[in-house]
Amino acid sequence: MGWNPKQYEKFKAERFAPFEDLLALIDKQPDLSFVDLGCGTGKLTARLQQALPGSRGQGYDSSENMLKQAEAWQNEQLHFEEKAIEAVNDSLHRQWDLVFSHAALQWVDDHPALFAKVWQQVKPGGQLAVQMPANHSHLTHRLLTQMAAEEPFYSALQGWHRHSPVLGLEAYAQLLFELGAEAQVVIEKVYPHVLNDATGMVEWVKGTALVPYLERLSPELQAQWLTIYTQRLADAYPQTPVFYGFRRLLLWARKPL
Ligand SMILES: C[S@@+](CC[C@H](N)C(=O)[O-])C[C@H]1O[C@@H](n2cnc3c(N)ncnc32)[C@H](O)[C@@H]1O
Fold first, then answer.
1. Could you give the domains of the chain?
2. Are 67 and 82 in contact (CB under 8 A)?
3. N or C, which end of the chain has less CB nearby within 10 Å?
């Protein structure tokens, strides 16, 4: 178990839609240098490079599986490397014109500390652009912590469950102000997804939020988890098609010169 590019890209069109909204916030000056934190398969990193004329970019991700796909997008001006987001400035102390991250920072804890670190990677006059899911109050996500507290999963997970580190909108606006941003856009958007039925929701969550739970369980318990999880979602969403409103945060900020 772990990150699986095939599973993640089952809902490619839906997962990539917020990328276009984030891209629209960026000031597309020519010849920018950029970093993509948690670049995954690199498809969107390459799309970002194409959208920024003359740009050169670097993608970092901690998943070897996801990065294998990124090799296809590598070129003279675009490189990928296995590295944890938390470790990027520990070894590099590098700054970019644009620090970009799409659907990845929600996997790193302690956002006030994380954003302070990420902000250090922005050059004076540069930009930060971040998209993060903020869907933790949806039943698909609430069920995860609920089931992790039930046996046999509680014992198998040794009491572990994932707490979303994603803060409220105002907290990011305040944080960006305190970091010294001279301009900022902080917005939330609900992306309307229409899935066949509750099983479609399970397939969706299997590509992301379910990953850390399933990778901690034996194959037998994974199967048991999926049966119970699917049944509970089917009970709550018996209709077809099913509407899956997905909340995301879009953040953009500029550092003063
Ligand atoms: C939902 S995917 C998004 C991938 C890509 N940015 C996109 O939008 O298609 C999240 C990615 O974050 C990566 N990730 C999670 N935690 C990470 C960390 N601490 N350091 C680096 N990458 C991480 C995962 O390996 C995965 O590829």
1. 1-133+167-192+245-257 (3.40.50.150), 135-163+197-240 (1.10.150.290)
2. yes
3. C
Instruction: Name the residue of 22, 66, 111 whose CB sits within 8 Å of the most ligand 1 atoms, as the mutation to test its pocket.
Output: 66
Ligand 1 within 6 A of CB of 104: yes
For ligand 1, is residue 22 a contact (CB within 6 Å)? no
Structure tokens belonging to residue 89: 């400035």
Check: CB of residue 68 under 8 Å from CB of residue 96: no
**3 Cβ closer than 6 Å to some ligand 1 atom:** yes
Query: Which residue puts its alpha carbon closest to atom 20 of ligand 1?
Result: 84
Structure pTM? Answer: 0.92
Tens of pLDDT, residue by residue over 101-128, are: 999 999 999 999 999 999 999 999 999 9
Please give the C-alpha separations between residue 113 and each of 59, 118, 132, 160, in angstroms, as whole numbers.
21, 9, 16, 23
> Which pLDDT belongs to residue 76?
96
